[in-house]
Amino acid sequence: MSKQYDAAYFQRWYRDPALKxxxxxxxxxxxxKVALTVATAEYHLERPIRSVLDIGCGEGPWRxxxxxxxxxxQYLGFDSSEYATARFGRSRNLHLARFGDFExxxxxxxxxxxxxxxxxxxxxxxxxxxxxxxxxxxxxGVAFLETFTREDGIExxxxxxxxxxxxxxxxxxxxQGFTALGSHLWxxxxxxxxxxxxxxxx
Length: 202
Prior knowledge:
Blueprint: H1 7-15, H2 27-45, E1 51-55, H3 63-69, E2 74-79, H4 82-92, E3 94-96, E4 111-115, H5 125-138, E5 139-144, H6 166-175, E6 179-182, E7 185-187
Parallel strand pairs: 1-2, 1-4, 2-3, 4-5
Antiparallel strand pairs: 5-7, 6-7
């Protein structure tokens, strides 16, 4: 990897007040994403979520707001950053793995909520295609696959950003059995037959 996800990277893009207008982070914005994903997963599962797998989790910022909403859920995170997993691995249950490792890696049973936020558009196609089937197998409810495309107005971290068309991702997600729900949310294959026609985006 040419890009280094070290302490300086996370400080710059998540906490630097000088980059507030471009920053990835923001507690209020993240809280809204978490509330949206939890409510959507529970709507389709018809029960509270119990398990979350966060792939490309960075320092694990989703963990605290998730636990605030559902204190008993099991959170498990994976990231390719040696810094993040060494610094927060024990306290936040984060582990070291690249996205492509999910070609074979099955660290848990299928989860109620799978998160892969702001990751896929930085991967080369070969690694993306290796790991994506694993995400489909590990998602038993809803996936939040926040991904940006060349049709989007991108600000912030554009280093190694892959300017692919939206159709590139739609086709790959659909091939793995995901059904679009809108707002970066995708329904797992096992639940798609329980939805009505206008609940899905396609």
